[in-house]
Specification:
mainly alpha, 16 helices, 0% strand
Length: 361
């Protein structure tokens, strides 16, 4: 693999890490940055194909300054942007010269083939058909969870699995579309209260989507858990307000047993409703988060999911640390003694150990 190919692939990873920023958005950001630095608006905007070419492998030259600008608008620091430029310059200096080719006698050299450039719309983003199919599947997951809770009387909500998948994989507003569709369909499953709680689904979609893409909380497993906790708390606040303002504290959901218990303990209705919602929403959103984590592994086979590689790798590190607590315990941990000889309990000895294995001081 050539140096330019490595640069293009690393630049693509930077784009995904910044939130799968579209090429058109990169062009807009570069133009805005140039205008802030005194370039007139007519000359500030680079061609989108020029920007796209910087991400394409098979190149024999690149514009180092443009690569530095791309890195800068993808949230790299000034020092990192300069390092991207320097990397391109080094690749140019180290590029081996192409060997001369002498044509055979009486044989005309073949004309140079034009460099085929794949259409940006085919590689810059998932096909619209795949996006649409994923949205429909997410709506189906939400409706399935909604129906199970309504039929079985579960003390969970379980109607936002698809909302989370769409918000993280496609963006917050795709999650909003899934959430609104779910609650509209929910009118035929429960009652008219479903449409009021569409606002809860909307808030969850926005927190999941912007938390993953703008706050980058999906890069690590602790960050991902924090994101789901933030969703739970946000949804609890909105749901509590709706319950108190529109439904006198309850709609008959199974989780309201907790509300009644808290109220019987002498808590005001508002505190009882909020406390019940926080408890059940935390359980619901954390369970949803683990389901979504597994689902994203399947989704990424046909749609690019930002942050998933970093997140899944960090999850595996935490799983290994749990499986090997001594290795994952950190520098301050004490390893267990290796040569502890225990021959069975002996009467009269402390803790029942043999005298051959005295306690360490």
């Amino acid at each position: 693999m050539g140096a330019y190919d490595e640069i293009a692939q690393d630049l693509q990873q930077l784009r995904f890490a910044a939130g799968d920023v579209s090429y058109a958005e990169i062009v807009r950001r570069i133009a805005a940055h140039r205008e802030r630095n005194g370039v007139d608006a007519g000359n500030a905007r680079p061609a989108r194909t020029t920007v796209y070419d910087a991400f394409r492998t098979g190149r024999t030259r690149v514009n180092p300054h443009l690569v530095g600008e791309i890195a800068r608008v993808l949230e790299a620091s000034e020092i990192e942007s300069a390092q991207w430029e320097e990397r391109c310059l080094l690749a140019r200096r180290n590029l081996p010269a192409a060997p001369a080719v002498t044509p055979e006698p009486d044989v005309l050299p073949e004309p140079a083939q034009s460099d085929p450039r794949p259409a940006v719309v085919e590689t810059a983003a998932p096909a619209n058909g795949r996006k649409f199919m994923l949205v429909l599947a997410c709506i189906g997951l939400n409706v399935l969870g909604f129906t199970l809770v309504a039929r079985l009387g579960l003390p969970l909500y379980f109607d936002m699995v698809g909302t989370a998948i769409a918000a993280i994989a496609l963006g917050p507003w795709a999650g909003v579309a899934v959430g609104l569709s779910t609650n509209a369909i929910g009118l035929g499953i429960t009652d008219s209260s479903s449409i009021a709680f569409a606002l809860v689904n909307v808030v969850g979609a926005l927190v999941w989507g912007y938390g993953a893409r703008s706050l980058r909380l999906c890069r690590t497993f602790p960050g991902y858990l924090l994101l789901n906790v933030l969703v739970a708390l946000s949804c609890s606040v909105v749901a509590t307000a709706l319950l108190l303002l529109l439904f006198n504290g309850g709609t008959g959901h199974a989780s309201e047993h907790t509300t009644r218990n808290l109220a019987q303990m002498g808590n005001p209705l508002s505190v009882a409703v909020l406390g019940s919602n926080v408890v059940h929403s935390l359980a619901d959103k954390l369970l949803t988060g683990f389901i979504v984590l597994g689902a994203l592994g399947a989704v990424r086979r046909w749609i690019e999911v930002p942050f998933y590689d970093n997140l899944s790798a960090d999850v595996m590190l935490h799983v290994k640390a749990i499986g090997n607590p001594v290795r994952g315990a950190g520098h301050g941990s004490r390893p267990l003694p290796a040569n502890l000889a225990v021959n069975g309990p002996v009467p009269g000895t402390r803790r029942g150990f043999s005298k051959q294995a005295p306690d360490s001081p």
